[in-house]
């Protein structure tokens, strides 16, 4: 038996810039045990990422970007090192990631 998820409650808390939801769901584990979870989910939509590899230098290409969530959690400058990524914005993942790689 695989794990199953049953949605119990989905309440929108905010729909300003993106959607913040309060979700309650039951997770039925493989052994039949049911565990109820309550989570706040910030839904920004789907995205795509790419790990670019430079075969000449044998290195990967990463970007350094400010992320407010890390700053409020005591990362003094709020900067993260990450792969090139972006939100789909109604594009196919391949189209989105080409734009991000060029940017």
Instruction: Categorize the overall geometry.
Output: extended
Q: Outline the low-pLDDT stretches.
A: none
DSSP helix count?
2
- Number-wise, the strands total 9
Query: Roughly what is the average pLDDT, rounded to an integer?
Result: 93
Largest sheet: 3 strands, antiparallel
Question: Proportion of β residues?
Answer: over 45%
Number of individual domains: 2
Radius of gyration: 19 Å
| Helix-strand category | mainly beta
Distance N terminus to C terminus? 45 Å
Oligomer: single chain
What strand line-up does the widest sheet have? 1-2-3
Would you list the SSEs in sequence order as H and E? EEEEEEEHEEH
Give the fraction of residues assigned to helices. 10-25%
Binding site for Mg(2+) 1: 85
Organism: Salmonella enterica subsp. enterica serovar Braenderup
GO biological process, one term: ribose phosphate metabolic process
Subunit structure: Homodimer.
């Amino acid at each position: 038996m695989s794990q199953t998820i049953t949605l119990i409650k989905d309440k929108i808390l905010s729909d300003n810039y993106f959607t913040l939801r309060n979700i309650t769901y039951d997770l039925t584990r493989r052994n039949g045990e049911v565990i109820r979870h309550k989570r706040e989910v910030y839904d920004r939509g789907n995205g795509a990422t790419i790990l670019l590899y430079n075969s000449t230098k044998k290195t990967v290409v990463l970007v350094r970007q400010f992320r407010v969530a890390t700053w409020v959690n005591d990362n003094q400058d709020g900067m993260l090192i990450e792969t090139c990524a972006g939100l789909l914005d109604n594009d196919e993942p391949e189209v989105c990631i080409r734009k991000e790689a060029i940017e």
